[in-house]
Predict the 3D structure of the following.
Amino acid sequence: FKQKAIMDIETFLQNESNHPADYRCGFVAIVGRPNVGKSTLMNHLIGQKISITSKKAQTTRNRVTGIYTDDTAQFVFVDTPGFQTKHRNALNDRLNQNVTEALSGVDAVVFVVEAMRFTDADRIVMKQLPTNTPVILVINKIDKNKAGNTGLQEFIDQISAEFKFAGHETVSAKHGLGIANLLARLRPYLPQSVPMYPEEMVTDRSSRFLATEIVREKLFRYLGEELPYAMNVEIEQFEEEENGLYRIYIAVLVDKDSQKAILIGKGGEKLKKISTEARLDMEKLFDTKVFLKVWVKVKSGWADDVRFLRELGL
Ligand code: GDP
Ligand code: MG
């Protein structure tokens, strides 16, 4: 009787989930040196903007999990902070540790490089790649390759001589080219399993977290070289009102008064622009009206204070 009951439950669950027996679900880590286009790639893989991107290196400070679900598989992507090799401080040590952690326990790894550009920083990341997990080499930004595909095969051969990749794909993350091929390439590495997340879910990060990510992206986009690395964004208040409005108060922590002045800008112009653009992005992502207030606080020396970093969840 017990046996039969268990079988009935299994049959029930299978019917309930409505997924083919060969459905796949697993984790894929996206790694690469800063600025190769990891966040852009993930946003295109899942078809929504959840990971922030910027022209400056190292905008991604936290792991962001993006989820893509179709009829045959569910891919759970982990975006990683780029390896920081220039400066050694508590923050960068922690960032690098996060990358190593992101690589353990995934089913496949995507190693992103820029077409025709392989630097020492790429090599440092490549040396951290796992040898017991399939790694797909992704050559991004092929749209920038003025000479078309000339030299591309040699470029791929050169990199492949230094590490045993399970395969490679050429893509343009920015223009959404080669994305479907990459998904098809990754699919066989996912274990057979029912989906872990609901079909409509694109990330397991909270709305609060995504709100801070959006503000960080605007900060990187609109500030000069002098500021961004000594900066953190915190939610002070996040409320969903009954009428659907999100009321969000966000503080930007900086190191010095001078940085605060730069961030605010003449007559408050810069901060206003940052807040407005962040609000518009949030309204798109949350699909509702947003009231957003962003202000700046000075807290000196925070980038070197490990205990403070822990409080921030880094
Ligand atoms: P990450 O640091 O690896 O996460 O890189 P991002 O995703 O933040 O991208 C860094 C920069 O490269 C941004 O300015 C992107 O717009 C740009 N980028 C990303 N993918 C492509 C691409 O396929 N083609 C071109 N031309 N630029 C790209
Ligand atoms: Mg990034």
Summary: The first strand starts at residue 24 and ends at 31.
